[in-house]
Amino acid sequence: MIKRLLTGLFALVILLGLTAIGLDQWISWKTAPYIYDTVSQLPKRQVGVVLGTSKYYRGGEPNQYYLYRIQGALNAYNSGKVSYLLLSGDNALQSYNEPRTMRRDLIKNGVRPSDIVLDYAGFRTLDSIVRTRKVFDTNDFIIITQRFHCERALFIALQQGIQAQCFAVPSPKNILSIRIREVGARLAALADLYLFNSEPHFLGPMVPIPSRAELPKHGPTYPAVTPEQLVELENQQAKRLPSSVSVDANTTLEAPDGSNAANSKKTPDSATKPEAPPPTTDSESMP
């Protein structure tokens, strides 16, 4: 009796393992036509979505997956294959901010800040892909990540009716453990898509890329703002502008203490000192 039970359990484990491997390979096969390994083959699209990961391993060594994705984003941007880079990643902790770290490294390497958009709610691949469509109003974009990650991201996009391609950047040599874990991640993605109909943790108002509203002269360059936010910005700026006062040319203005304001000068001690730039941590600088 026990022998039959053990045999049945063993057969079940083998069956589940083969099913998992089969589903894994099916996802790879289904998404293969949409993956490009070189920049020259990559189609030109307006937006490139860089999927976030930590910059360093727990031991403090640089994360090669991160470095390859940053370099891939630079290659796609500098070659003109994408015009904007949407950096999507985790921002769950104040001390851990994937989009901000990627932004700093890309700007250091020549990407214009106005061409970078941040998505702080890319907690998982499904969130990043679906939010690109539903929040950033982009339905045809380039995903930038490693090939095994490309396959899962593209499968999610296809199931959601999103037209996407992927630029597969290199992977480190020793990826066996990551690849085994990817099988589990793909099974979880299948469950999210076909069993639970999962949605991103956060959606929010639509912020198209590029902005459909013209930004005010002294407003932020990017992210894009909605027309309602644009009106709010203009109202805030109008409140800050001092009201115009007409002064006769022969009138002498006096300071509050009664002295001649025109002759009063600021001493070096009274001059406004420039603010020191915010400190940066070593964990957010390129190695």
Q: Can you put this structure into words, describing what you see?
A:
The protein is of the alpha/beta class. The protein has a domain at 27-194: HUPs (Rossmann fold, 3-Layer(aba) Sandwich), CATH 3.40.50. 39% of the residues lie in helices and 10% in strands. It contains seven helices and six strands. It has helices at 2-31, 64-78, 98-108, 125-134, 147-159, 176-194, 227-240, and strands at residues 35-36, 47-51, 84-88, 116-119, 140-146, 163-169. Strands 1-6-5-2-3-4 form a six-stranded parallel β-sheet, with helices on both faces. Strand 3 (84-88), helix 3 (98-108) and strand 4 form a beta-alpha-beta unit. Helix 1 packs across helix 5, helix 1 crosses helix 6 (176-194) and helix 4 (125-134) packs across helix 5 (147-159). It starts with a helix and ends in a 47-residue tail after the last helix.
CATH C-level label of the domain at 27-194? Alpha Beta
CATH fold call of the domain at 27-194: Rossmann fold
Summing up helix and strand content along with how strands pair, one would put the structural category as: alpha/beta
Q: Which strand order spans the largest sheet, edge to edge or round the barrel?
A: 1-6-5-2-3-4
Residue runs with pLDDT of under 50 for 5 or more positions = 219-227, 243-287
In terms of DSSP E residues, the strand content is 5-15%
Q: Based on CA inertia axes, which overall geometry fits?
A: globular
Determine the fraction of residues in helical runs and give it as a percent range. Answer: 25-40%
